[in-house]
Amino acid sequence: MTNEFAKNEKEIIDEYQKKGFKGNYRVENMKLIDSKTKIGYSPEDVTILKEYRFEGMSNPSDMSILYILKTNDGSKGTVLANYSPSSNIETAEFFKEIPEDNYMTN
Questions:
Q1: Which has the closest alpha carbon to 24: 42, 36, 10?
Q2: Secondary structure letter of residue 103 according to DSSP
Q3: Taking the mean position of all CA atoms in its chain, how far away is CA 99?
Q4: Rg (alpha carbons) of the chain, rounded to whole number
Q5: Is the pLDDT of residue 2 over 70?
Q6: Predicted structure pTM score
Q7: Can you give the residue ranges of every domain in the chain?
Q8: Does residue 79 contact residue 31 with C-beta atoms inside 8 Å?
Q9: How many CA atoms within 13 Å lie on the side-chain side of 102?
Q10: Residue closest to 91 by CA, chosen among 46, 57, 38, 49
Q11: I want to staple 11 with a disulfide (CB 3.0 to 4.6 A). Which of 7, 53, 76, 105 is the partner?
């Protein structure tokens, strides 16, 4: 996992968008949904290329992870997942289900 203290989430997302990572996704019913095309991907369809971890400024237990990913059909983009005590656990559960072999960050 990479820690990017010099940059915030938006700056990193902007950098990757310039490199062609234009997809924006959300997790719904254990599927990664492309917000533009509405295509749904199962955990097996997703490869994580890189992760960035961010701790909350006012509360270090509030954390977010920016996932840089590609899908089995060549779509590339980002997901910003919030891991605070009040966050929705469905996103965390989805990313736990991605096969270990699909993590290029290891």
A1: 36
A2: B
A3: 15
A4: 13
A5: no
A6: 0.85
A7: 2-98
A8: no
A9: 18
A10: 46
A11: 7
Tell me the residue length of the chain.
106
Residue 85's contacts (CB-CB under 8 Å, 6 or more residues apart) are 61, 62
pLDDT digits (tens, 9 = 90+) for 26-85: 999 999 999 999 999 999 999 999 999 888 666 666 788 999 999 999 999 999 988 776
Amino acid at 54: F
Scan for tokens 């270090």, then name that residue.
60
Amino acid at 77: G
Pairwise CA distance, residues 37 & 7, whole Å: 29
CB-CB contact of 32 with 75 (8 Å): no
Can you tell me which residue has the tokens 């990572």? 21
Under 8 Å between Cβ of 64 and 80:
yes
Q: Which residues of 24-58 are buried (b: 16+ CB within 10 A; e: fewer)?
A: ebebeeebbbbeeeeeebebebbbbebbbebeeee
Q: Is 66 strand, coil or helix? A: strand
Question: Reduced to 3 states, what is the DSSP secondary structure of residue 84?
Answer: coil
